[in-house]
Specification:
alpha+beta, Phosphorylase Kinase, domain 1, Transferase(Phosphotransferase), domain 1, six-stranded antiparallel β-sheet, 11 strands
């Protein structure tokens, strides 16, 4: 892997890329500093260029050097003087150098550095003189001065106006980034200034009489801020919307304190992978990106004079959509001009409706189909195979398959009937994602014959996924084997094979099945190297094998592939809990909870439930708020979350309320999907805390009779209830049962969050009662 240091912006780019344009915004370097022997010798010889006295070296790029210089007559003024380096004055370099000078000369805007003069050194090297900007990059200025996002957006609006001015003069900057937008103070106010038009491109006229060459196969600009079309490196003509994309990246960084794509990932990748990421991978929304920053989140919020929750709320909605509209892969879906972007930002600042909106159903489906052609075909075939006809009232009153509905929607769009088209597409999406209650398709029950069609194979894959959802692992396993017999490199089948093997291990404890599953995951990762799922499954299997460092590395790999893949954050939390790192576990669960759930996620409440369980184990009052969010995700109908709320009111010192605990457990007991023994056990414990001994005996007895999966725990609670009711014999009988099953109960509980809640803190009170009861029993036995 290349040394990241080799990708310093002022030296070189990734393998195969040219050095980025010169950056003269770096801190000034005194002439006495040892930055460059060559430059010191040159300065000793120069000391003065034309009427300008050299003061300091302030930056250098691939072709030029920039000095702070001073002109003393007729008016004393300090300027930035850029001159071609000795030995770099080739025809192409001189042409590009002159183009930058001409570009700056064309413009006259308060937020763009001005050109004052031009000439040549004694040895014939061209130079030009421009306004000296005594400033720092816009992101640094904003963080250093802890500007709010409102204040940051005010500065950004000025930058948009400056870029629009350049575009109106026929100039595309092509390297807009924070280090090329310096903020200086003028009349006591911060003013952003755009600098460095070294790779600018003219759209309306030639900037120089000399021929300029852009070498084929080279990246022009800075990769983190580069538009997809600029990264293409083809003969496609870029237009001002490329700069709009770069402005979107700067806006993203200003409001969330991070780039859309991890810069280390980009700069460690080859040119081809860099291009793929920029062109194909959708970055997370700013509000989502904030949730992935871990320990940095607090600092990001502090730099904006906010707490994390308020910042997240501020980013959600308009700021998310403005930024994502600027970052659209398709230039046609971006803001058409820099001015339009600036105007939408102004609307946001004035609390007016913004133009940017979430992508429509039609567009999201269009992107989904383009990205997952096989999956869509698979889902459509499943619907056709399982549901012979789907009644759907549409504009043309016909019964349509998924594909027919898509075609109908396209026709409606062409006719300008956008609302009707989106309605049809929304129903199409619902049709292919709605869970199927029963399969019953005879064609899917038969193994594919040799040479059977691809459509049948894809339909069978859909059946496998549905079987797994329905819990029929035996039939799913058989169908997976059928698919692999025909297509041994099928990603979906290989991944689900590993999932099934994990379930098999959890049933019989045979470690050999995990090795088999890992081998299948190796194949899946080779087939789809940019999918996070195989790495997450691998991590879980490695954790079962006790290889925790390797397990964590696998989860981190999944996150590196997709920073918004929430299951891996939950998996990391579980693993850290095993290691006793509760703070690390909570940190990762907070990240997972902050990632918007996938629309296809059938358990969106789970992330909040996991977070609440851990916070409950740590005795954090925040657990109750997390439980309420989990309940809200299912409209208050989830028994697991009501049960967790009951535990919270039994365990949290700040929220101890046995009556509320009992009421929450009763709510769980009313749900047909609940676990009756566990619910009755919690009701019994709440009754004990309330001093209602008979109710405790009744509920605990029901828990035992219903085969509580933790018999030691249930019998212990029942023993305490009998003791409080004065039934010593019943107490001793259930104590003996609890003692006999105690080791099995403990062995069955991994040191994970739910187990900690279930058997950790609750044991404290019951053990205290156990010791008291045993002392009473011993005393009674010793008495004559």
């Amino acid at each position: 892997m290349p040394d990241p240091a080799s990708f310093n912006e002022t030296t070189s780019g990734p393998s195969g890329a040219p050095p980025p344009a010169g950056d003269y915004s770096a801190p000034t370097t005194p002439l006495s500093s040892p930055s460059s022997r060559f430059l010191r010798r040159a300065l000793d010889q120069l000391l003065q260029i034309g009427p300008y006295h050299i003061v300091e070296l302030i930056g250098e790029g691939g072709m030029g050097t920039v000095y702070l210089a001073e002109r003393r007559e007729p008016v004393r003024m300090r300027v930035a003087l850029k001159v071609i380096k000795p030995g770099m004055d080739t025809r192409e370099v001189v042409a590009r150098f002159d183009a930058e000078r001409q570009a700056l000369a064309l413009m006259n805007h308060p937020n763009i550095a001005r050109v004052f003069d031009a000439g040549a050194t004694a040895d014939g090297r061209p130079y030009f003189v421009m306004e000296f900007i005594a400033g720092i990059p816009i992101t640094q200025y904003c963080d250093r001065n802890r500007l709010t996002n409102t204040e940051r957006l005010g500065l950004f609006g000025q930058v948009c106006q400056a870029v629009q001015h350049a575009h109106e003069k026929g100039i595309i900057h092509r390297d807009i980034k924070p280090s090329n937008v310096l903020v200086c103070m003028q009349n006591g106010k911060p003013v952003p200034k755009i600098i460095d038009f070294g790779v600018a491109k003219a759209t309306q006229q030639r900037l120089t009489d000399e021929t300029m060459y852009t070498f084929h196969g080279q990246l022009i600009g800075t990769i983190e801020y580069m538009s997809p079309e600029q990264a293409e490196m083809s003969n496609i003509e870029i237009d001002p919307r490329s700069d709009v994309y770069s402005l979107g990246v700067v806006l993203y960084e200003l409001i969330v304190g991070a780039l859309p794509f991890d810069p280390n990932t980009l700069r460690q990748a080859g040119v081809g992978e860099i291009q793929r990421i920029i062109r194909e991978v959708d970055p997370p929304k700013p509000s989502t990106r904030l949730s992935t920053l871990g320990d940095k989140t607090g600092d990001v919020a502090s730099h904006r004079r906010l707490d994390v929750r308020t910042l997240a709320r501020e980013l959600r909605g308009d700021l998310d959509w403005i930024t994502m509209k600027a970052l659209e892969k398709d230039p046609g879906r971006r803001y058409a001009t820099a001015a339009a972007l600036g105007e939408d930002v102004a609307r946001y600042l004035h609390h007016e409706p913004v133009l940017a909106r979430p992508p429509s159903v039609a567009y999201k489906l269009h992107k989904f189909i383009r990205r997952h052609r096989v999956s869509v075909a698979l889902a459509a075939l499943l619907v056709i195979a399982i549901v012979s006809t789907t009644a759907l009232y549409v504009t043309r009153q016909q019964t349509a398959s998924f594909e027919e509905m898509v075609k109908l929607a396209q026709t409606l769009l062409a006719e300008g009937k956008k609302a009707e088209a989106e309605s049809v597409l929304a129903r199409a999406v619902e049709q292919i994602t709605k869970p199927t209650i029963a399969l019953g398709a005879p064609a899917l029950a038969q193994p594919p014959a040799a040479g059977s069609g691809r459509a049948e194979l894809e339909a069978k894959l859909s059946a496998i996924i549905r079987l797994l959802q329905l819990g029929d692992s035996a039939e799913a396993a058989r169908q997976i084997q059928d698919v692999l017999a025909v297509d041994p490199r099928n990603f979906t089948a290989l991944s689900n094979y590993a999932v099934l093997k994990r379930a098999e291990f959890e049933t019989n404890g045979d470690l050999r099945v995990l090795d088999d599953a890992l081998a299948k995951l190796d194949q899946a990762s080779q087939i789809e190297p940019r999918r996070p799922e195989p790495w997450n499954i691998r991590g879980v299997l490695l954790r079962h094998l006790g290889r925790l460092p390797e397990s964590l590395a696998a989860f981190e790999k999944a996150i590196a592939i997709d920073p918004g893949y929430s299951p891996s954050y939950v998996s990391i939390a579980n693993t850290l809990a095993l290691l006793g790192d509760w703070q690390g576990a909570e940190r990762n669960l907070l990240i997972a909870a902050g990632i918007p759930p996938d629309p296809t996620d059938s358990r969106p409440w789970q992330r909040w439930h996991n977070l609440a369980a851990l916070q409950l184990a740590l005795d954090k009052p925040a657990a109750l708020a997390a439980i309420d969010k989990a309940l809200a995700a299912r409209d208050g109908r989830n028994p697991h979350n009501w049960l967790l709320k009951a535990r919270a009111h039994l365990l949290l010192k700040s929220a101890l309320d046995p009556a509320k605990a009992r009421d929450a457990a009763v709510r769980a007991d009313e749900d047909p999907d609940h676990s009756p023994p566990r619910t009755r056990r919690i009701i019994a414990l709440a009754a004990l805390r309330l001093g209602d001994w008979e109710a405790a005996v009744k509920a605990a007895t029901e828990a035992v009779d219903r085969k509580d999966p933790q018999p030691a725990y249930a019998n212990l609670i029942l023993a305490i209830a009998h003791a409080k009711s004065g039934r010593a014999d019943d107490c001793r009988r259930h104590l003996r049962i609890a003692e006999a099953t105690w080791p099995k109960d403990l062995a069955a509980q991994p040191l994970e969050m739910k187990a900690t809640i279930e058997n950790g803190l609750l044991w404290i009170d019951t053990l205290r009662e156990l010791h008291a009861l045993r002392a009473e029993a011993d005393a009674a036995a010793a008495s004559p």
